[in-house]
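Side project, low priority. Logging it here so it doesn't get lost.
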Amino acid sequence: MAEQDRGLSERSRWNAGRRVAVGDRVVVRRHLEAGQTSHLYTDVIGRVVELEPELVVARESGEQVRIPDADVAVLKVVPPRPVRARDIRAREYAGALAWPGREYEIVDGWFCRAGDDWSYRGNSAVPVLPWASCSELDGVRDWYAARGLPLRLVDVERLVTSDRMTLGGVPVDPARIHADRELLLCTVASRDLLTVVDEAFPAATRPPVTLVDRPDDDWLELYHATAGLAPERVRPAMLATAGLVGSGPDAGSPGPGGHAVFARLEEDGELAAIARGAVTTGPDGEARIAVSCVETADAHRRRGLAEVVTGSLVDWGLGLGAQECHLHVFADNAAGRGLWAKLGLEPHHSLRHLVVVD
């Protein structure tokens, strides 16, 4: 453990052996040099954005404080701010609207979606209404069975109790439930992210980004999940978004709506970086932009192009009223978590996809 975070977690008994990781909220008591202040120490409170080669903590203001190991007197990992179940549900609903697949329907409180068999989000049901329950899944199972698909659920932290899953009134054998990798849904205020991008990549020197309304074949070939797949197979799900019907007998139900756009950053005639953005509005009335499919070509990595295309999407989304940005990152993807932490994105809740097999 000490080798993974260079012993920083041992600076306080409070951590009880917990390793410090990028994205954690921490309180760091640091030594001050003579003359900096009349006090010997000062506290830095924020989230860890870098561990190597030394600790960097981002305050809520966005300021990033670099702290040499020798200056760290005490470091405590503190729990994340409490998150309400309704806030989790609102973001999951907005995310489902941003990736609804080619076919979707609310069944027993679950947002069932189908027609996307190539992404981790595809053909899965998301709990978006308060009464979505793992003890009442027969309707969801039948919806997928009618389309020749297995029952696949998004197991969302605090919303799903997968250990109590029943079908036909009978508990499901845990051996039938296969779980994918854990994901984190991370969020940040759009303006805060744009401030970080503007400071790191001044507009005068920033490479231009083009926003288009559909992904071209070279865009789909660069994205790792669609590379090598027929464009006509994957493009419909890429283009799909949904909204909530505002009036009439179907008011509150998902229907046509949302906005999707695709970022292209080219250098010397070559596609260097891409990303997808989708603005949707959940049942709480808040517009949010979901960023996904961020990819940089091998020859153009480590130059901040992912941050640039992300910033262009968030700026576009802000023009449509999206005050918050959210995206998924795999929990075990240290490099990805570090990238998003630098842009201010903090984990909001965790989720994973479950498949119930015969």
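Brief comment: The longest strand covers residues 270-281.
Revisit when time allows.
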